[in-house]
Each structure stands twice: as structure tokens, then as C-alpha cells.
Amino acid sequence: MNLQQRIDAFVKLGDFLGQFSNEVIQKKDNIEHNDLFFDGFKHQLKLAKEHNGWFTQENMAYAIKSWHEALTEANLKKWLSAYQINELTPKTIAVIMAGNIPLVGFHDFLSVLISGHNVLVKQSSNDKQLLPYLSKYLEYINPNFKERIAFIEGEMKGFDAVIATGSNNTARYFEYYFKNKPAIIRNSRNSVAVLTGNESEEDLKKLSEDIFRYYGLGCRNVSKLFVPKHYNFDAFFKAIYHWHPIIEEAKYANNYDYNKAVYLMSEFDMLENGFLMIKEDSSYASPIATVFYEFYDTHFQLKEKLNNEKQQIQCIVAKGFTENEIPFGGSQKPQLWDYADGIDSIEFLLSIQ
């Protein structure tokens, strides 16, 4: 396969995914191999939902829509135009995936294959229904992928480099275990939002998407707010209220009740509105149904703090605060060229010879 053939295959995969990108699934006539794969993927979505209670139909549709919109020929070519991708001798790249949100490891899977390498995938037990099925679809689109894609359950063997994502503890294990291999090792990070008090109601409504999408389980979810001294949270609570049905989801409600009980018994000060608690805390990683906040004095001091602690931060959501900020409502809509932890995985993959 040359690069254009690989691009063509992923564009067709994007077209296939488009049928599942809304909560109401719609079969289309012009999708290759649809009679063979449509009903099967519908069933895989059902299995994924049954296996992982966080994978609601709405959240899976949101993730799939993101990939449907990303996998266009224009997007893929724009992404790859920054690199000199020559045909290389394929190496086997092991990809160890997280499972916190649906298809969270897809970007690594795509990056390995689009660069011309073979991929050896070790999935999280929380998210293992969707990607193998989509891989089979790719193999039907272009049979050359059959010898390029493998999934394993047990010990990983026979690979040349690794991209691994896990918790902070797991990442330390990865660093030791893969110390003799070229590697990208990712650990836990969280995202923050910087507020000034001048945000419009629409800004704060958009911010609620960054907080609540995927129940806050993603590294791009805002888990902490930085606010000026004496910030009034009334406008914030009013703007996010349209998310109140989230408390009807049993898993979310259980976490809300548990964390609220812990805070009350510990006599922690916190504000809450029946489905979200906010608590002043210097940590970045907040529990489910909770967002931490911290006061700041000046933008200069805050920028200095965030720069010093950038290893803990995935992205900064703000409006006119810093050069690389994400706009309100945009944290869960990364482009193909928005790399996790800011590490260019294509550049890494092209360096493996």
C-alpha cells in the first residue's frame, strides 16, 4: 500500500462511521461492504454499552461523530502534509490503549497504520468491542491491512517500538518494562479552564460540554477551574443547568452521592446544585461529579504556575488567556494534529527505521 491507498481506506472507514454518528442510526446506500458490516457494528455498539455502563449510546455516537468528521481526505492530507512520508520498511508498533472513553486509542491506531507501520494492539478491558470490528472493515476495504493489524490479550512480543497510555503508576511500569525500546509513554493528565468573570452565558454553556461530556472521564475533560478572587459562581451554575439530566444515570448518581457524603463527613466546604459539586482544591484530578477550583491573583502569575505544572495538564480551555488555549466547548473536539501530551506521534513513528 502507498500513502494514498491508506488515506483512501480511512476515508471510507469515516464514511461508514457516519451512519452511527447520531443517536438515531441510519443506514446509507452508498457505503462499501455495508450489507456485511452495518448490522454487525450496530450489535457491537450494543455489546459495548452492556459491557461498560459509561459508554452510553449518546457518548458513543459523539465519539464516532468526531472520527467521522476527522476522517476526510482533506483533513488527512492537511495533517500529513507537515511530514515527509516515504515508503518505509514496516516495523511492528505495540499500542497499549486506555479505556476511559469510547475509541480513545484510535488516534494511535490510525497514526501507526497511516505512517506505513504494522500495529499490535493491546486494548483495555473497558473498551474492546468497537476497534477490532472496525479493523475488519478496513481489511475488507483494502486486504493489505490483514497482515498489518493484530490484537493480543496476553504478553506482548515481537514489536519494535511502543506507544502506551495508562495511569501514573502504570506509566512508571511501562517506562521500566520498555526501557530498551523506542517509546511514547503517557500518564494521567487533566484539563483546566481559566475564567475571568467576563464570560457570557453562552461561553459558560459551552464550557459545560468540556466538563460533562463522557462524564468527565477523559484527559481532555475540564476537571479544574481557575477563577479570580471573589468570583461569583451563580452565572456558572445557571449556565450549566441544562446538564441536570446527567444525574439520572445510575453510575454518575452513585459517584455523586458517594463523593458528596465524603465531603460532608469531612466537613469540606463545597458548592453544589444537585448534579455537580465544586470544591476549592489545589489538585488537578477531581472525582466524578466534582470540579475543583482555585483562585488566582494575576494572569501573569497563573501562566507561570500552569507552565511550571504543564506535565499535569492536557489542555487549557480559555478565551484570550494564552496562545495554545482551546476555546470553550472545544476540548472534546481535537483535530488530527492535536497530539496527546503535545508529543508528535507521527514524527516519532517516522523516526523508527
UniProtKB/TrEMBL annotation:
GO terms for biological process: bioluminescence. The keyword Chloroplast does not apply. Keywords: NADP. Pfam families: LuxC (PF05893). InterPro entries: Ald_DH/histidinol_DH (IPR016161), CoA_reduct_LuxC (IPR008670). Coiled coil: none annotated. It comes from the Bacteria. GO terms for molecular function: acyl-CoA dehydrogenase activity. This is Acyl-CoA reductase. The lineage of its organism: Bacteria, Pseudomonadati, Bacteroidota, Flavobacteriia, Flavobacteriales.
